What we know:
By secondary structure, the protein is an alpha/beta fold. It has one domain (3-209, 265-335): TIM Barrel (Alpha-Beta Barrel), CATH 3.20.20. 37% of the residues lie in helices and 15% in strands. The protein has twelve helices and ten strands. It has helices at 29-42, 57-66, 94-108, 127-139, 153-166, 189-195, 226-229, 245-261, 265-274, 289-297, 305-314, 335-338, and strands at 3-5, 12-14, 16-19, 46-48, 74-79, 113-118, 143-149, 171-177, 199-203, 279-284. It has an eight-stranded parallel barrel, surrounded by five helices. Strands 1-2 form a two-stranded antiparallel sheet. The longest helix is centred in the last third of the chain and has 17 residues, at 245-261.
Amino acid sequence: MEYRYLGKTGTKVSAFALGGSSFGSRTSEEDSIKMIDEALDFGINLIDTSNRYGNGESELIIGKAIKARRQNVILASKFGAEATHELNHSGASRRSIRAAVEQSLLRLQTDYIDLYQLHLPFEFVAYEEILLTLNDLVKEGKIHHIGTSNHLGWQMVQAQAISDRYHIQRFVSEQTPYSMINRQMEFELAEVAKQYDLSLFVYSPLSGGLLTGKYKAGQAALSDSRAATLKGYADALDPELAENEYKFKIIEKLQQLANEAGILLADMAVAFTQSHPSVTSTLWGPRTSEQLKAYIAGAELRLGTDVLDAIDAIVPPGKRIDDKEQTWSPEWMSAERRRRHVS
């Protein structure tokens, strides 16, 4: 396992990380703990979760699984996207951040979180409010480092400037989607990360399972697949929709390239994310032990220039094939914000 620095913190994290989004929701506690043990034994030291995953169940399971090995784990969690309709019980205010971290520490059965990440940007909360609160938590020893998730490049630059102005903790990482068919990260965010010594943790390297090779344009998905399970709710995964035909034709070209190279499409997809110099760690989000074993089996694969050039010819650098893969929609894209008011 290769280990890389988390920004300029001096902390080293594994080139692959275990994501806990399925733990406690789509994966049982027993199977989740088994996968955590397998990942740690393989050499992974970075485990990522959120207080949103499984409504807190993911943190509970991870806390139980790593209790005896806590000193060997770099534990990352996220806040701000809590699934609740209670007023002031979620978000990124000083009050909600303090409540969230205390609850996460209890669930994780630990005194500190190594990397505490803002799950989403918040238009109506100033970065000063968020950063000053997180800075206090670092001083108190409850968290060690701070990061973000699903942020844009300009937002990262703005936050860095505020940290410099107040001489307080700065975000050291950003967690963002990245795959062979969603290369938007390369257009701006990768360069921002380079300029500001930010670590990039990339998730969804298989684009929600699209790059496993099990879907064909115009054909019904297998009954046990994610696309079949979420049919009607996740249109981006549906191979039967005419609007997705172009995307699945692109995936077929990538499949052909993988066949010619003698490698699995899924392995090529994960290795692709590791080829970018700005990527610190690629998050694996297995639902089953078999999926984790498949990730591990392909972990050593590295792509040559010829394969990377061929991928570029199919999906140009910086391009996102399907806009439905965007993980969040900013407030300024609402109809009210895009149109002048007519009296």
